[in-house]
Design a protein that fits this description.
binds adenosine-5'-triphosphate, alpha/beta, 242 residues, five-stranded parallel beta sheet, binds magnesium ion, Rossmann fold, 2 domains, two-stranded antiparallel sheet
């Protein structure tokens, strides 16, 4: 089961992970300043993304990354999440959408002690389908996803959905919408809008139906992430020495 809150507290930092005194703000020495391996597991953050931070997101002015990052910072520092507000990162492959979504989960833990949950959407549906024979584990996964204080649904709408998958996503989004619980979405396709005449690309609304798209557009601010595919970029190889 994914526990959504941490009960123990550090007497120095009150469990916030940082201390503010006359010298400024600094990290506490306690475990709250670290997102530990066991937390990564609870949050279901994939290994590849565990070292991803807002601070190691390389900004390129040409693509408006400054604006994206300052909007993300504003979101993290605000209480918008309490009103069920989230973010919807849309853009082509390799531009850093998942990197940003994971960084947000980590910052929510560091700054607010909230243990969020990450799921690649297709894997979530697969896991649920594999366990949804009435066994308790399927229901537990679904309950964790519905109740997580902040949820990342990665790569939403990457394929056409069966009626079953659509119903499950419907259930998750509608429950979170009703309970004012935020979602952070990443996707390669636009949420709504008309596809141009010669575009083969569908929108999420077309793939998932207007009930989901309408709720997501109320819940999420859309941030369009542009850039080059960093998976094949020399810039990234220089940064990480790969
Ligand atoms: N601006 C950036 N600065 C640093 N690293 C980046 C940046 N953009 C992408 N990366 C890195 O490139 C790799 C691919 O990024 P990521 O997986 O976040 O892309 P994505 O937009 O989610 O792509 P997809 O749509 O295929 O899921 C990751 O290792 C990520 O950390
Ligand atoms: Mg991604």
């Amino acid at each position: 089961m994914n526990k959504t809150t941490i009960n123990e507290e550090c007497p120095r930092c009150k469990g916030l992970g940082w201390i503010k005194d006359k010298e400024g703000v600094r990290k506490c020495v306690c475990k709250y300043s670290q997102v530990t391996d066991s937390l990564f597991k609870r949050m279901n953050i994939p290994k590849r993304y565990r070292d991803k931070e807002l601070s190691n997101f390389i900004k390129n002015k040409k693509y408006g990354h400054d604006l994206i990052l300052s909007r993300v910072e504003e979101y993290i520092n605000s209480d918008d999440y309490l009103d069920g507000k989230g973010l919807f990162f849309v853009g082509p492959p390799g531009v850093g959408k998942t990197h940003l979504a994971v960084s947000i989960l980590k910052e929510f833990f560091r700054r607010r002690k909230l243990v969020g949950l990450f799921y690649d959407t297709r894997s979530l549906l697969f896991d649920l389908k594999a366990t949804f024979d009435g066994s308790s584990s399927g229901r537990e996964i679904l309950e964790d996803v519905v109740k997580a204080p902040i949820l990342v649904l990665d790569d939403l709408g990457s394929e056409r959905l069966s009626d079953w998958a659509r119903d499950i996503l419907h259930y998750i989004i509608i429950n979170r919408y009703n309970e004012l619980k935020p979602v952070i979405i990443t996707s390669n396709i636009e949420l709504k809008g008309k596809k141009s005449e010669n575009s083969l690309e569908e929108t999420l609304e077309e793939r998932m139906g207007s009930a989901i798209a309408s709720r997501l557009s109320e819940m999420c601010e859309i941030l369009s992430v542009k850039g080059q595919d960093m998976r094949t970029s020399k810039l990234l190889q220089l940064q990480y020495g790969k």
